[in-house]
Specification:
The protein has helices spanning 2-25, 28-34, 42-84, 94-105, 113-120, 126-132, 134-137, 148-158, 171-174, 200-244, 249-252; strands at 110-112, 140-142, 168-170. It is mostly helical. The protein has two domains: 2-84 and 222-252, no CATH class; 94-193, no CATH class. Helix 1 (2-25) runs antiparallel to helix 10 (200-244). The chain has a three-stranded mixed β-sheet with strand order 1-2-3.
Length: 253
């Protein structure tokens, strides 16, 4: 009787182990990792369990690295998209706006340099003007050159106390001939400015490109995140099965 009970127990254990092994062996991901077209047999699973565990670990590490890189890129693009704003041109800084407003209150026509650049300068010339007169582009342009002296007097008495250096000049100063290319290097260079400060079309193009790229990247992130979840689950199942069924045990049973 005891022998019969032992035989029944062994048969039940074998059936359970084979069922678990069969379920694992049928996973397409394991066949993919081994580079075979058909699902694994239980014997193939038993013989390759350690290799499969290592392949799963390597695949998880690679996928997680790629996922981290994509999420980092997404965060960078989100920051750029936020900087570009929702549409149109971005406003200049508060010190420039305060200066323009104060001049307007005293009858002196002026515009933020960025706005004047956008409205009065050919986009093809923006880069040259920016390189030659960055302080004035980021400052205030007096649109009536005859008001220049009066603007100086008014602002000298205004006590606006800006927290940034606000350059003020005439449109003629902004549009004065730029130095020819290839001249001596001044040692000063300009950080590429936000296109939404001076070129609405370029800013819109950049927004569209960023949003399109974000859509494609989000799909990749979802795919990779799902793969990580599946591979982790599969690795845990494989490790649990191997812990309860060491190599060769199926043959012994």
């Amino acid at each position: 009787a005891r022998a019969a009970d032992a035989a029944q127990a062994a048969e039940a254990a074998l059936t359970a182990e084979r069922a678990t092994a069969g379920s694992l062996a049928a996973e397409p991901r394991l066949a993919e990792l081994l580079g075979v077209a058909d699902a694994l047999t239980v014997a193939e699973l038993d013989g390759n369990a350690e290799s499969l565990a290592q392949l799963l670990d390597e695949a998880l590490e690679s996928t997680e690295r790629r996922l981290f890189a994509l999420r980092t890129e997404a965060a960078d693009d989100a920051r750029i998209l936020a900087a570009l704003g929702d549409g149109g041109l971005l406003p200049p800084g508060p010190d420039v706006l305060a200066t323009v407003e104060y001049l307007g209150e005293h009858g002196i026509p002026a515009l933020p340099g960025w706005r004047y650049l956008a409205q009065a300068v050919d986009p093809a010339d923006h880069a040259a003007v920016l390189a030659a007169r960055p302080e004035l582009v980021d400052g205030v342009v007096i649109t009536d050159q005859h008001s220049h002296a009066r603007a100086r007097e008014v602002l000298a008495e205004a006590a606006l106390l800006p927290r940034s250096a606000v350059a003020v000049g005439t449109a003629a100063a902004l549009l004065a001939p730029t130095p020819p290319p290839g001249g001596p290097d001044s040692g000063i260079f300009l950080v590429p400015p936000n296109p939404a400060m001076h070129d609405e079309r370029a800013a819109d193009d950049e927004r569209q490109a960023l949003r399109a790229r974000a859509g494609e990247r989000d799909a990749d992130i979802r795919t990779l995140a799902a793969r990580v979840t599946r591979d982790r689950s599969l690795a845990a199942r494989l490790a649990s099965w191997r812990a309860g069924c060491p190599a060769g045990r199926l043959g012994e049973l």
